[in-house]
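Bumping my old thread because nobody answered last time. Still need a sequence for this structure:
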């Protein structure tokens, strides 16, 4: 069937529901379509709305993208002989106009490419137009991808396009060209603006892998804040490398962390609360068999942050209790189980908290370690804490702010994940 197919996530409840479509911009009634190929996600990112108000601080001011080519560098965690891209206009209130898109092997994490790559089409068309909230899968692209190697996705944006949603802490540079179509450019000369966010392209998938995928979801500690930029030192990255060394056929490892994210409250800056967004993440990431959820420290901390005028990213300053957080974890567990995925909860890591907040963190961790509702837990707290000061990170695992791990700390988190809980349909070479 020719024409542009746009998938709207609000029209289905699970990834196993029939895919619905809408033809071009006419918004015709949806039709269920059969797909000849099943897919497994190999890379992903999670979007969050950009605050839409006057006089934003520089940190939240979106770059100019209209009529320009945006080039983003991504690293798949599974190899495949072809690839499919997922594009999202989630959280935007205006249409998305991508006039051309191309994917090519990249020169390291820089803007230059190692070849011409391949054009990306949608329903046979080069142009993709999505309404606010719309989402689309590309046609399969006949480009073989190799795990842990960089690929450049270049998108020419329409003349009126604005950036309204992004993944703010990408820990990876993206690039914006001078005006015009530079999707075919191999050299980096035209890409003069550098920014450290992801936008629009939210996942890559390869033809179905028997090993499936592990989805890591959470806040800035999963997002890899304060890890070395451009070096893939987040703990899910380290876990993917560890799995590759331990298994003949490792699963993909997907990162759905959002810095500042909370379990129970939305934020004007830090995205939709995890209990709400997890359904969408699972709906759009085929092949996930295990979820590792590490979330809750911001719920504990933001309640104590003083409110202020202007852009207050910590609002609402909602007080939480162990009981309310546990109720939220139960919702996460139920969502994963509805998607036929096991769920592992991560214990909350040390953060040099005042006594009352530290007591709450300890109570939550005690429940995580002892509950029988999740399918297991990962003791990130034990992996990172200073034995002499259990409420603090070990010095060599502290990035310097006493909350976020260093590269060595993120590696220790990856080492703390029991591989025996990630081996569904995989072949384990050595026991760890």
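Sorry it took so long. Here it is:
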């Amino acid at each position: 069937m020719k024409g542009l197919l746009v998938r709207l996530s609000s029209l289905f409840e699970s990834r196993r529901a029939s895919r619905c479509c809408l033809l071009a911009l006419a918004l015709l009634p949806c039709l269920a379509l059969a797909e000849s190929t099943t897919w497994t996600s190999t890379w992903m990112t999670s979007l969050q709305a950009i605050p839409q108000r006057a006089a934003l601080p520089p940190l939240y001011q979106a770059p100019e993208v209209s009529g320009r080519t945006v080039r983003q560098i991504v690293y798949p965690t599974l190899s495949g002989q072809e690839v499919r891209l997922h594009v999202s206009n989630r959280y935007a209130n205006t249409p998305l106009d991508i006039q051309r898109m191309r994917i090519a092997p990249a020169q390291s994490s820089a803007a230059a490419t190692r070849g011409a790559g391949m054009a990306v089409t949608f329903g046979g068309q080069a142009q993709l137009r999505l309404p606010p909230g719309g989402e689309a899968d590309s046609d399969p692209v006949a480009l073989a991808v190799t795990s842990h190697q960089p690929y450049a996705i270049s998108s020419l944006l329409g003349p009126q396009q604005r950036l309204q949603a992004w993944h703010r802490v990408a820990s990876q540079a993206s690039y914006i060209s001078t005006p015009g179509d530079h999707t075919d450019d191999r050299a980096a000369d035209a890409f003069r603006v550098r920014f450290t966010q992801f936008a629009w392209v939210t996942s890559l998938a390869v033809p179905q892998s028997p090993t499936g995928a592990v989805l890591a979801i959470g806040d800035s500690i999963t997002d890899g804040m304060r890890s070395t930029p451009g070096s893939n030192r987040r703990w899910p990255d380290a876990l993917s490398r560890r799995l590759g060394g331990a298994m003949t056929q490792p699963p993909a490892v997907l990162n759905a962390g959002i810095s500042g994210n909370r379990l129970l409250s939305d934020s004007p800056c830090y995205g939709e609360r995890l209990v709400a967004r997890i359904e969408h993440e699972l709906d759009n990431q085929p092949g996930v068999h295990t979820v590792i959820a590490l979330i809750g420290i911001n719920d504990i901390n933001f309640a104590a942050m003083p409110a202020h005028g202007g852009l207050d990213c910590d609002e609402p300053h909602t007080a939480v209790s162990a009981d309310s957080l546990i109720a939220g974890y139960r919702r996460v567990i139920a969502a994963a189980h509805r998607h036929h995925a096991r769920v592992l909860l991560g214990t909350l890591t040390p953060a040099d908290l005042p006594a009352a907040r530290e007591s709450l963190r300890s109570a939550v961790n005690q429940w995580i370690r002892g509950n029988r509702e999740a399918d297991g837990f990962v003791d990130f707290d034990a992996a990172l804490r200073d034995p002499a000061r259990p409420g603090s990170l070990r010095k060599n695992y502290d990035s310097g702010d006493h909350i976020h791990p260093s590269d060595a700390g993120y590696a220790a988190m990856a080492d703390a994940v029991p591989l025996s809980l990630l081996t569904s349909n995989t072949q384990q070479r050595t026991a760890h």
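The two ends are 48 Å apart (CA to CA). Let me know if any region looks off to you.
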